[in-house]
Specification:
heterotrimer, A mainly alpha (237), B mainly alpha (223), C alpha/beta (243), A: 237 residues, mainly alpha, C: Rossmann fold, six-stranded mixed beta sheet, 35% helix
């Protein structure tokens, strides 16, 4: 137990420092993007690093939930259920971060807080799926059944994400296509110079580290909660 | 094959029981009709060409009516405990899934058989639309495939009627989008080739989720 | 043939069955008594494969439930206090449906025979919705017996039944367990496990009694070795001890 503490604290410190570094990279180190129109747009673009970081965090959360759900159904170990719910919560939090940061970026760039652009829509739908996941968990009292149902829904939810995402390929999108072929209808796109690329990679790595650290903490919290429940059961006559 | 006969028995049983009361069917039909009427009024006040929104209206109506039908179909089983009669029998659990799924599909298709013509009339659309039938069939299949499994889960929970649409709709988004796009394409007489990708998405969705539902239904009904 | 060894069932942290041992031979009828909440229904549901054991083994006809529940289900008949019938189908349609699920041959003949034994021939085309409680129970038993089960489980089948219906129930159980021949047909040698709150009735119907208390079988005896009064005393004593 003692040694576990030490490495977790070390991880916390590393993640914290990495995030501080990411803030520096995003706001100070990264140059302003070229070929952007207004002053506001240029300033808002810096949120790109946070936005992509949240994407990474959300992806880690949701993918972990998917794997944990499958593993729970196969092994029936409560541990995997604990990891699944922790990952879902994490993925949801970062997912909301994606939407919020995307929205802040959108305002000066596309002159609107929100648009039913397919990529944004599918991000919103994904967030809804994991909100539904947590609501499902809340509605089932028996822990064994709750874990099973959540695992099944987690599998459905995750598989639906790429299919929903596929719908984007068919639609023209105003979402800047930062990676990949240029889309003539995209507005607000910008070229990735080497410094921007560096800031981006760093940012995504820092967020990944943050996500993993938070996940570990949340899983530990979940196990403590279960232990408390067990003790309570034993103490009640 | 024995499993096929068992599936057929379950579907037959659901249809016969439903024919006696027509509870589920009438609820779905009335709800779908109301939804279409209300949307027609609501949009007509604001939109110049109501035909533009017709595909969306149809699929919203089908979706909400479908959810109603799904939750009632499982509530009945759950309340009377009769799902246990099925669980006691020497059946593969997937037989129960396919039986219930095909039963739900039949109810939805029966409702749509009445609702779609009315929809065509109300929105002043061309009468002969074979493509529309294909879309309705594939879309409803996706709906029933996923909806049957989720309904089986939510039948066991508190707030079951609210929870089912919350679980179902986000996952069904690709079906809804594809179905609306294809419906619009057929209504506007656009050649299928242009919209073929939507058809592909719909088919992929149906196949993938039928497979996943088949594999996971066991975990939902076991005790 | 039912063999239960060290059966444990827990719901989350709550342990209901703490190691139940019970065996029932072919042709034997055992009645299980116990206070409310003792776990009788839980036990029945596990043997009926509706619920999984947390630990321990249950063998039906030599087959372990945990490994091959499907094979076991073919030989099981279960009568619960919930009817498990479809209200909007007729008596005949209900039997036909279950017969198809069990893959029974010469189904129509069996349906006729079951309806006759349950005394429901006159009502075969009526919806179950219109049946009285007693008739519903009789149809439930007919459904359970349709596939000629080698194991019959009855969970408080006599709840809410009048004398006539209860007597009919007794006759059916006796036929199935092989104490009497049924209409000249082959004597079935099934294992019967039933639960009831009525001590006298249970003693009358079964070959052996068992009392479930504190999550275990606290008492077992053959009915022949015990008078109803002694049974009542034993029951009172055990329930007061264990709660």
């Amino acid at each position: 137990m003692r040694s576990k503490w030490h490495w977790l604290i070390a991880l916390d410190i590393v993640a914290g420092l990495a995030m501080l570094g990411a803030v520096y990279m995003a706001l100070i180190f990264a140059p302003d993007a070229a070929n952007l129109a207004s002053e506001n747009e240029i300033k808002a673009q810096h949120i790109f690093y946070f936005h992509m970081g949240c994407n990474v965090g959300a992806a880690i959360g949701l993918f972990t939930n998917f794997i944990a759900s499958i593993l729970f159904l196969v092994t029936r170990q409560r541990l995997w259920d604990g990891i699944a719910v922790s990952a879902a919560e994490l993925g949801l939090a970062f997912g909301i971060g994606v939407l919020a940061s995307g929205s802040i970026w959108a305002r000066p760039t596309w002159n609107t807080w929100w648009t039913w652009d397919p990529r944004l829509t599918s991000a919103a739908v994904t967030v809804l799926i994991y909100v539904a996941y947590l609501m499902l968990r809340g509605a089932v009292e028996d822990p064994g059944r709750r874990a099973r149902f959540a695992a099944v829904y987690g599998i459905f939810g995750f598989v639906s994400v790429p299919i929903t995402f596929l719908s984007i390929r068919l639609w023209r999108t105003i979402h800047p296509v930062v990676f990949g072929a240029a889309n003539p209808d995209a507005r607000g796109g910008f070229a990735l110079g080497p410094n921007i690329r560096l800031a981006l990679m760093y940012s995504m790595a820092a967020f990944a580290l943050l996500a993993i650290t938070l996940l570990i903490h949340r899983v530990r919290l979940e196990r403590r909660r279960e232990e408390v429940e067990q003790l309570q059961e034993r103490l009640t006559p | 094959m024995r499993s096929l006969r068992q599936v057929a028995a379950i579907v037959w049983k659901d249809i016969v029981a439903e024919l006696r009361t027509k509870d589920i069917f009438s609820a779905m039909f009335v709800f779908a009709l109301l939804a279409i009427l209300i949307f027609e009024f609501a949009f007509d006040l604001r939109v110049d060409n109501v035909r533009e929104v017709a595909p969306g209206v149809l699929w919203v109506a089908i979706s909400f009516a479908g959810v109603l039908g799904l939750s009632r179909s499982f509530s009945l089983e759950k309340d009377k405990g009769s799902i246990e009669g099925l669980l006691l029998a020497p059946l593969d659990r997937s037989v129960i899934y396919f039986g219930k799924m095909l039963g739900n599909l039949s109810f939805m298709l029966a409702t749509e058989a009445l609702v779609v013509p009315l929809f065509i009339v109300l929105f002043n659309l061309p009468l002969y639309l074979p493509g529309l039938l294909l879309v309705v069939l594939l879309g409803t299949l996706g709906f029933a495939a996923v909806g049957t499994l989720f309904a089986a889960m939510t039948a066991n929970t508190r707030a079951r009627e609210v929870l089912l649409p919350i679980l179902l709709f986000p996952v069904l988004v690709p079906v809804l989008i594809s179905a609306v796009k294809l419906t619009g394409g057929f209504l506007d007489n656009i050649p299928l080739q242009e919209n073929i990708n939507w058809l592909r998405i719909l088919i992929v969705f149906d196949v993938v989720f039928l497979a996943i539902a088949y594999m996971t239904f066991d975990y939902v009904v076991e005790e | 043939m039912i063999e239960i060894r060290g059966l444990v069932k827990a719901f989350g942290r709550k342990v209901v069955l703490r190691g139940v041992d019970l065996s029932i031979e072919p042709g034997e009828a055992v009645v299980l008594f116990g206070p409310n909440g003792a776990g009788k229904t839980t036990l029945m549901r596990i043997v009926a494969t509706l619920s999984r054991p947390t630990a321990g083994t249950v063998r039906v006809g030599g087959i372990d439930l945990s490994y091959a529940p499907d094979a076991v289900r073919q030989q099981l008949g279960f009568v619960s206090h919930v009817p498990l019938l479809y209200e909007n189908l007729t008596a005949e349609e209900n039997l036909r449906f279950f017969g198809r699920l069990y893959g029974l041959s010469d189904l129509e003949t069996r349906i006729d025979a079951m309806l006759r034994q349950a005394g429901l021939v006159a009502r075969r085309h009526d919806l179950v919705r219109t049946f009285s409680r007693g008739m519903v129970q009789r149809l439930s038993i007919a459904r359970a017996l349709l596939a000629d089960p080698s194991v019959l489980l009855l969970d408080e089948p006599d709840t809410g039944l009048d004398q006539h219906a209860a007597a009919l129930l007794h006759r059916l159980i006796a036929q199935v367990a092989g104490a009497q021949g049924a209409e000249g047909s082959q004597v079935r040698r099934a294992s019967v496990l039933l639960t009831t709150h009525n001590l006298e009735r249970g003693w009358e119907w079964a070959d052996r009694v068992a009392i479930l208390a504190g999550g275990r079988i606290a008492f077992q005896a053959r009915c022949a070795d015990l008078t109803p009064t002694e049974l009542r005393e034993a029951y009172g004593r055990i329930v007061n001890e264990r709660g």
